[in-house]
Amino acid sequence: MEEESKYHSGLSFPFYIARSEICVNAAGECIGDGIFAGHDFDAGEHIIAMKRPLVVSLSTERLVDTCANCFAWTEGTSIGSRLYVPEGIKVQTCAGCKRFRYCSKQCQKEAWNRGHKHECKNLRPISNREIPKAVLAAMEILIRQKHGLIRDKDWEMLCRLDTHIDDFKRNGKYAEIELMAMGTSQFSWTQDTFSKDFVAGMYARVLTNSLTLITPTFDPLGIMIDPTLGHINHSCDPNAYIVLDGPEPAIRTLKPINKDEEVYISYIDPTNPYARRQSELKARWSFTCKCTKCQKGATLDEDKWLIRSEKMAQKYKDLADAMIELEDLGDNEANYVGESEDEKRLAAIQWKAFDMYEDEQQTVDPQEAIKKIEDGMRWCYQSGLWPINRQPYAAFRDDIIVNMSSVGNYPIAFAQCAKRYKYILPKLYPEIAHPLRVVQTWQTAMLTLYLASEEGAMGIAQAGVDMSLIAYMLVIEVKFMSRLSHGANSRFAKSVSKKFDEMTAELHAKLGPNAEDLMSNAIPRQRELFMEMGDWLQY
Ligand SMILES: C[S@@+](CC[C@H](N)C(=O)[O-])C[C@H]1O[C@@H](n2cnc3c(N)ncnc32)[C@H](O)[C@@H]1O
Q1: Domain final position from 250, 270, 296
Q2: Do you know which InterPro entries this protein is assigned to (predicted)?
């Protein structure tokens, strides 16, 4: 790989692929590979950075506003937290296929040469048809291989990834795989090259080995499949993560990793309770997770309730009983709490919370989503069962911030950010340069800055509060942490640095020659005031 040689010159190769002890079958035999550190790494370093994943497929909603080559998402956030996207950028539809859009002639040309020229004409007659992203990804893989556009080494590594066909046959989903594979063959015009079974295997491989394509601020854009990235195994207590800098994915370390230690990322939200993590991994990736965290079972913070199940208010016991009677909660393994009657009630209450969460996540209209999120947050809060950092209570809060911002209710979004900053981020992401902690702090900083620019900070600032200094304090934090979370040369870290420079210049102009002293004296007090704002809202 040409990109490999530029890293760690003088050091041994940064990673290697070998048999992993975590992937074992029922007989205890190692049946899978993983990625291992080629030398020692500190936290906040990158292990691999590559030019782009082998194949990417944008989700249907993102096809209209995202460049299919460099993945620049052109819709700006109202609070400016996506400053890494060049200003004024727009995407234009490919005149041939009318499906993909590009932000420049250069991007269109790169995609064309990478393989689009072999599919563009064939996609034209089906331009109005919605094609699932996994089918589009499998189509691209087959087309590129048919035309000799995938390197032998990549193809060989890709084909080594497990298809999990036997699991699909066992869980009754194979018929669906075959159907999708038929579409993949037909739309890609590769029936002459690849057998039906081979295509079914490749489609299944995409389903079980793809990762989420994300922006540098972790908004999901689609899926990516890559032979190297696809070899990284999962842990609910990962020592690494994947971050994208435009089209360039990098594996970065969350914790120090010693030479020959296995590198793990998390395929799911590792802040979820034990049973939910297990069930999600089993359903989507067909394995029973035995990572160090799962070995501790439901004993960690993610599984703590505020009170014991038998202490639940009678009202909630009654509601739970009604739910158990009405809903089919028999197969409720993702919410498993325990065997007693009260624990089963607790599982039903939790089921309802996650059901509400999944429903609001599917809701496109922000006003409607806000109503659903508020119902969900109230459910968690008023039940008296949820610690503030237990899921999905914490995840509801992330969504209320996004939706309140998108309808222009910045004061509430801000107060929720303050609560999250004070109570949730340090608990859920104890590593200070955890990429989600950094990105959410950045979102808070930009929201604060926006409010600082509004007359009277839209009525939220109280005596003594200086919103621009609070924003500055948060930007300083992100500036230092983003070097570790995203890399000093990443577009994200550079856009944060640029914002920091602009804010520094403005504050100097406003405060005069003693600006530095004035700021360093005032910031600790502003931090205290910001922390107090974390208690403004009841929930
Ligand atoms: C993206 S692949 C990772 C590479 C894979 N080990 C291989 O050799 O092809 C995902 C698959 O790896 C296995 N796997 C990943 N993490 C695992 C874990 N923590 N425990 C058991 N199996 C795991 C599962 O079979 C899963 O479906």
Answers
A1: 296
A2: H3K4_H4K5_MeTrfase (IPR050869), SET_dom (IPR001214), SET_dom_sf (IPR046341), Znf_MYND (IPR002893)
Strand partners, 101: 93
What span, in angstroms and rounded, lies between the C-alpha atoms of 236 and 242? Answer: 14
Q: From ligand 1's centre to the CA of 532, what distance in Å?
A: 44
Residue matched to tokens 């158990």: 324
- What predicted TM-score, i.e. pTM, was given to this entire model? 0.94
In a domain, 406, yes or no: no
**Ligand 1 atom at minimal distance to the Cα of residue 164:** 27
Sheet-wide strand order for 33-37:
15-19, 33-37, 262-265, 233-234
Beta bridge partners of 257: 41
Q: What is the pLDDT of residue 165?
A: 95
Using alpha carbons, select from 241, 305, 242 the residue that is nearest to residue 273. Answer: 305
pLDDT digits (tens, 9 = 90+) for 205-234: 999 999 999 999 999 999 999 999 999 999
Q: Which residues contact 243 (CB under 8 A, 6 or more apart)?
A: 214, 216, 249, 250, 252, 435, 485, 486, 487, 490
Please name the residue that has the structure tokens 């037909």.
186
Q: Are residues 260 and 284 located together in one domain of the fold?
A: yes
DSSP three-state, residue 355 = helix
User: Within this chain, do residues 105 and 177 fall inside the same structural domain, yes or no?
Assistant: yes
The three-state secondary structure class of 116 is helix
Atom of ligand 1 nearest to the CA of 208: 27
Q: Determine the Cα–Cα distance for residues 74 and 91; give it in Å rounded to an integer.
A: 7
Q: For the chain, what is the domain count?
A: 4
Return the closest-CA partner of residue 199 out of 211, 215, 186: 186
Token pair recorded at residue 118: 């072999």
Residue 86 amino acid letter: P
Q: What is the dihedral of CA 370, 375, 377, 382, to 10 degrees?
A: 150
177 and 268, same domain (yes or no): no
Ligand 1: residues within 6 Å at CB? Answer: 20, 22-23, 32-34, 161-162, 208-209, 230-231, 233-235, 285-287, 289-291
Instruction: Give distance in angstroms: CA of 302 to centre of ligand 1.
Output: 23
Range of the domain at 496: 414-539
pLDDT digits (tens, 9 = 90+) for 309-324: 999 999 999 999 999 9
ipTM here = 0.99
Which atom of ligand 1 is nearest the CA belonging to 34?
A: 6
Beta-carbon contacts of residue 15 (< 8 Å; ≥ 6 apart): 35, 36, 37, 38, 47, 48, 251, 263
26 & 63 share domain = no
Q: How far apart are CA 229 and CA 13, in angstroms?
A: 16
